[in-house]
Write a structure and sequence with these properties.
CATH superfamily: MOB kinase activator
CATH class: Mainly Alpha
Order of helices and strands: HHHEEHHHH
Helix content: 40-55%
Number of domains: 1
Number of strands: 2
Distance between the termini: 36 Å
Mean pLDDT: 85
C-alpha cells in the first residue's frame, strides 16, 4: 500500500481474506495539496499536535480537511492491516466498541437499511465506501481550481465519524494484539492526532466519541 508521500507500507493480509484495502488516493507530488501535506508532516514533527492540526494561514479549510482525511484513511488502513489476522468472523461476530456500543452498516445507496455484520465485514464495507468517496473527483477534487462541492463538509464529517469506529474497535477489542506487536505508541499518536483534528474543526459529534471518551480525556489532559 502506498502512503500519501509515496512510502510503501506492508499490509498484513489476514487468513480470512487476502483482500487488503489499497488507497489509490495518493496526493500528486508538486500539487498544492502535496505542499499542504508536507506542511502537516513538518508541524507534526514539532511534537505539538494542537498546533499541527490548525489551519495554516491563508489556506482553504476544505482543502486542509480533504488532505488530512486522506491521510487519516491511510493511517487507519495501515493500523488495521497489522491486526486483521486477529479480527475474524469468529473473534468479532459483531462490529463493537466494548459491550455498550455496536455498529450496524448502511451506506444509504447499496445498503439502505442498517445490517448487523461481523467486524471484519463492517470494516471492509466501511473502508471500501470511504475509498470510493476519496476517489470521487466531484467530492475530493485533486486539480487546482476545481471547487469543492457545497456538501463537502457533511461528506467529510460522515467519513471521519465512520473512521473513528475503526479506532474504537481496535482499542476495545484488539489492544492486547496491538501491544504484542509493539504498535501501541503508533496507534496512540495516530489517534491523538485524529482527535485533536476533529476537535479543532468540530467534525464529530461528542456522542459519537463516547466509546473512547476516557481515553480522549486522558490524551487531552496530558497536552494541557
Amino acid at each position: 500500500v502506498k502512503g500519501l508521500t509515496g512510502n510503501t507500507f506492508p499490509l498484513v493480509s489476514g487468513s480470512r481474506s487476502s483482500k487488503t484495502f489499497k488507497p489509490k488516493k495518493n496526493i500528486p507530488e508538486g500539487s498544492h495539496q502535496y505542499e499542504l501535506l508536507k506542511h502537516a508532516e513538518a508541524t507534526l514533527g514539532s511534537g505539538n499536535l494542537r498546533q499541527a492540526v490548525m489551519l495554516p494561514e491563508g489556506e482553504d479549510l476544505n482543502e486542509w480537511i480533504a488532505v488530512n482525511t486522506v491521510d487519516f484513511f491511510n493511517q487507519i488502513n495501515m493500523l488495521y492491516g497489522t491486526i486483521t489476522e486477529f479480527c475474524t468472523e469468529a473473534s468479532c461476530p459483531v462490529m463493537s466498541a466494548g459491550p455498550r456500543y455496536e455498529y450496524h452498516w448502511a451506506d444509504g445507496t447499496n445498503i439502505k437499511k442498517p445490517i448487523k455484520c461481523s467486524a471484519p465485514k463492517y470494516i471492509d464495507y466501511l473502508m471500501t465506501w470511504v475509498q470510493d468517496q476519496l476517489d470521487d473527483e466531484t467530492l475530493f477534487p485533486s486539480k487546482i481550481g476545481v471547487p469543492f462541492p457545497k456538501n463537502f463538509m457533511s461528506v467529510a464529517k460522515t467519513i471521519l465519524k465512520r473512521l473513528f469506529r475503526v479506532y474504537a474497535h481496535i482499542y476495545h477489542q484488539h489492544f492486547d494484539s496491538v501491544m504484542r506487536l509493539q504498535e501501541e505508541a503508533h496507534l496512540n499518536t495516530s489517534f491523538k492526532h485524529f482527535i485533536f483534528f476533529v476537535q479543532e474543526f468540530n467534525l464529530i459529534d461528542r456522542r459519537e466519541l463516547a466509546p473512547l471518551q476516557e481515553l480522549i480525556e486522558k490524551l487531552g489532559s496530558k497536552d494541557r
